[in-house]
């Protein structure tokens, strides 16, 4: 697999750090290995925070800052290969990886890609590890056998909110389980073995722990299995996991290392930064971002301007397709519309609702209803739809925040912001949805190589300009 130049740079810089980290660990440095390796590599950014895992060992943590459209998941697969060739070399490419995501959409996309043996993410991971890969969901992992753990790399994909003890569904992660998971623990009638296991891994949850009676029995839970494996952790959209609860949850799984990937990291140990210019040079994204706002303060006028721009882009896309070798499907420019309200009982005159926009598009702007999709927490018209398929009719997607992250469609060219968004991080994530370049290949038409944002509110326009 041929990586882009900036991806090769990231992999090389991570390799240097992991080599230094492996040396620190080999020398017995279990307290400050992450920071000492960082300083040994003369990384220009400081190591902002030292962390400990659940058994009080140093927890090396670093972040790759890469803009939306830069291939974070592909980089994660390559970095996992490096981890298993350095600090986890003795695992020989086997064991458990915890892949943590922040949202349903990212969960679905990651699971689908890593389970598809023909997808380049899966191919990249298998090539990097030279091992068989098994991909698991939380409700399946109890079927993992000791043999599978010893011979495959097992990737457990979870949502961060599904691994704490704050709700009943999440508590299943910590409950005593049956099935194959029992085979990873000592027999129930061997209390001394359970005691020894507890002494080796002090943060295991126990059913029995009584020095006086000598009764010891560890829970055969998914959480305990993860703790015993001391996994590498991939933390997708790491800026979503900065709360005390999130940090403690991850640390409690006794990871050997945490790799964060984010376009907008918070307080993180940023090891490598990728610039937007690097992505542009590799034809990965559409730049510049053209920004406009309505002088009339009318959301309907903003929609009209976006419709007209989409029509112009569509004509160019058709012209480009006719002049090409037609090896790829024609580009169908998509408009994303961010509204203020989407709830069933939230429709009122003061706010722009998703149904208001849909009605206006159909009744006033002449858009075919089949070309409009709504994506919210309650309604998902694009579930299971391949938006780049030539038979797909969708040209407009209306949302509030459901597409802020974890959704990718290179046909998305135009963002219409009818919401008074003032959060730069939220706007950065939303603008990122329209940046991917179709087929990672620029066209002869400049307008098809750029992206477009239409803002109702000047404050939103200013936020986009800062992005």
What is the fold's blueprint, element by element?
Elements: H1 5-26, H2 33-40, E1 61-65, H3 72-83, E2 95-101, H4 104-115, H5 120-129, E3 133-137, H6 146-151, E4 153-159, H7 168-171, H8 191-200, E5 206-210, E6 215-218, H9 222-229, E7 232-236, H10 244-251, E8 257-262, E9 270-273, H11 276-281, E10 289-293, H12 299-323, E11 334-338, H13 354-363, E12 372-375, E13 396-399, E14 412-417, H14 424-431, E15 451-455, H15 458-466
Parallel strand pairs: 1-8, 1-9, 2-4, 2-7, 3-4, 7-8, 10-15, 11-13, 11-14, 12-13, 14-15
Antiparallel strand pairs: 5-6
Helix pairs in contact: 1-2, 1-3, 3-5, 14-15
Task: Give an overview in words.
It is a single chain. With 467 residues, the chain is of the alpha/beta class. It folds into 2 domains: 5-185 and 220-277, Rossmann fold; 285-466, Rossmann fold (3-Layer(aba) Sandwich). The protein is 34% helix and 16% strand. It is built from 15 helices and 15 strands. Helix 1 packs parallel to helix 3 (72-83). The mean pLDDT is 91.
